[in-house]
Design a protein that fits this description.
By secondary structure, this protein is of the alpha+beta class. The protein has six helices and three strands. The protein has a three-stranded mixed beta sheet. Strand 1 and strand 2 form a beta hairpin.
């Protein structure tokens, strides 16, 4: 749903940049574009959808960080049913230790469960790619800048 709304937003923006804010304007194919009311309704629907998803992601992040005592967790939307989760432990050695004791598998399970709870999608329809890292690595190789690490 979010993916489709983003595509609609791009189309509406392109339409408006072509001068589509006039009621009877035509696009390059001579077709009428959406009315100002249709644009406003679409924009409102996109804001509702993105606000809902943003709130859900914040709640998932807060819960998982607290439950597993993570330094940070970033959950990014990459498509209609695709997400990427960056999990950050304190030290590099924690990654190995948490892999052995099953914590990483538990984190993956909780993220999937939480996404299922807040979305109309079920696990077979969801894809979450996990990247496991440490704050120690971010400080050492990315000058402590998580934005650089997430690229």
């Amino acid at each position: 749903m979010l993916f489709l709304l983003l595509q609609l937003a791009r189309a509406l923006l392109a339409f408006l940049l072509r001068g589509g804010n006039r009621r009877n304007s035509r696009d390059s194919r001579g077709q009428h574009g959406p009315s100002e009311q249709e644009v406003a309704r679409a924009m409102q629907a996109m804001r509702r959808e993105s606000n809902w998803l943003y709130s859900a992601i914040k709640a998932i992040k807060r819960r998982v960080k607290k439950k597993f005592q993570l330094v940070d967790l970033h959950l990014l939307v990459e498509g209609k049913t695709k997400f990427r989760a960056y999990v950050f432990f304190k030290k590099d050695s924690d990654i190995h230790d948490r892999s052995l004791d099953g914590t990483i598998d538990q984190i993956k399970e909780v993220v999937y469960e939480d996404l299922e709870n807040v979305s109309p999608l079920q696990r077979p329809d969801l894809t979450v790619e996990f990247e496991i890292d440490s704050d120690e690595n971010v400080k050492k190789n990315y000058q402590g800048n998580y934005s650089l690490r997430l690229r």
